[in-house]
Design goal:
The N and C termini lie far apart (52 Å). By secondary structure, this protein is α+β, with helices and mostly antiparallel strands.
C-alpha cells in the first residue's frame, strides 16, 4: 500500500510544479451568468484539481499555490473572450486592457434599465416604431472615432475603494463619473429586426458598450438597453481561434495555447 501511494504522489507533485512554473497569457471562454472573478476561480480550481491539489480554495489569497488573474472584466450577463495571466503573465494584463477589443452587441429599443442591460429593472419605456435602419446607421457616425463617454453607474469603477455597482446595491447614492475620452475604431449595424438591433464594435480600452447602446437610444428619440453582449476579440486573442472552453481547461491545452513571457531578471543582474 505504501509503495502504491509513493508511486502516485510523484506525478502529482510533478504536475503541480509544472503548473506553478507557467508564465504567460492565454484566453478562455466566459459563459453568460457567472462573474469574471467566478470564472477565474473555477479555472484555478479545475487546474489545481488536475495537479492533485484537493480541497483548494482559489479565493484565499494567503499561500496561494497558483498565481492567476484576468484582464478586462466582462459583466456577468456578457460572454466571450477573457484573457488570463498566469505567473509573471499577471504583470502583462494591464497592456491587454489598452489593446483593441471587438464585440457583437444586441440592443433592444423601447426599454431602458437601471444598469443598462437585460438583468436590470426597466425604468423607462418609449416608442420606437419611428426608427429605421438608416436612422441607426446615421446616428452611429457620431459614436465613431475619438469620443467622450460617461461610464455607467453599475460598473467596476470605484469610489473610495469600493465598486460603484456594490455601493448601489448597498443603497448608497452614487454620482455618475465625468465623461472621459474613448476610441471607437469601427462601428457597424449588422442587423435590425425591431425592437432588436445588432452592432459590430471595435474599440479601445475603457469603452462601455452599455453606455453606447443607452446613448444611441436617446439619440434616436427613444431608449435602449443591451440584451446580449459577446466579446469576440481582446488584444491578440480571438474567440474563434484562442478561447479555451470549459472542456479544454486542462494543463495540456493551457500550455498549447500559452503566449509566454520572459522571466524577470533578479535585482543587480546584467542587462
Amino acid at each position: 500500500m505504501a509503495g502504491n501511494i509513493h508511486n502516485t504522489a510523484a506525478p502529482i507533485s510533478s504536475s503541480l510544479s509544472k503548473l506553478q512554473a507557467i508564465n504567460g497569457l492565454f484566453a478562455i471562454y466566459k459563459k453568460q451568468g457567472p462573474t469574471s472573478a467566478d470564472v477565474l476561480n473555477t479555472l484555478k480550481e479545475v487546474l489545481l484539481k488536475e495537479a492533485g491539489v484537493k480541497n483548494s480554495n482559489p479565493r484565499k489569497r494567503r499561500k496561494q499555490s497558483l498565481k492567476m488573474g484576468h484582464g478586462g472584466t466582462l459583466d456577468s450577463t456578457a460572454s466571450g473572450v477573457l484573457v488570463v495571466g498566469v505567473g509573471n503573465g499577471t504583470k502583462m494584463l494591464s497592456t491587454m486592457l489598452a489593446g483593441t477589443k471587438k464585440y457583437v452587441a444586441v440592443g433592444e429599443l423601447g426599454k431602458a434599465t437601471d444598469n443598462l442591460d437585460a438583468s436590470g429593472s426597466v425604468v423607462l419605456e418609449k416608442d420606437f416604431e419611428h426608427i429605421t435602419s438608416l436612422d441607426i446607421e446615421e446616428k452611429l457616425k457620431a459614436f465613431t472615432g475619438d469620443i467622450m463617454q460617461v461610464p455607467p453607474l453599475y460598473s467596476a469603477l470605484k469610489k473610495d475603494g469600493q465598486r460603484l455597482s456594490v455601493l448601489l446595491m448597498k443603497g448608497h447614492k452614487v454620482e455618475a463619473k465625468p465623461a472621459r475620452p474613448v476610441t471607437v475604431h469601427n462601428l457597424r449595424l449588422q442587423e435590425f429586426k425591431p425592437p432588436l438591433f445588432t452592432l459590430d464594435i471595435e474599440c479601445g480600452g475603457g469603452f462601455y458598450v452599455r453606455s453606447l447602446v443607452d446613448d444611441l437610444g436617446k439619440a434616436l428619440s427613444s431608449c435602449a438597453h443591451v440584451k446580449e453582449l459577446i466579446r469576440t476579440k481582446q488584444g491578440q486573442f480571438t474567440l474563434e481561434e484562442h478561447a479555451l472552453h470549459e472542456e479544454e481547461w486542462t494543463l495540456e491545452h493551457v500550455l498549447r495555447s500559452l503566449q509566454p513571457c520572459s522571466e524577470p531578471k533578479p535585482p543587480g543582474a546584467n542587462t
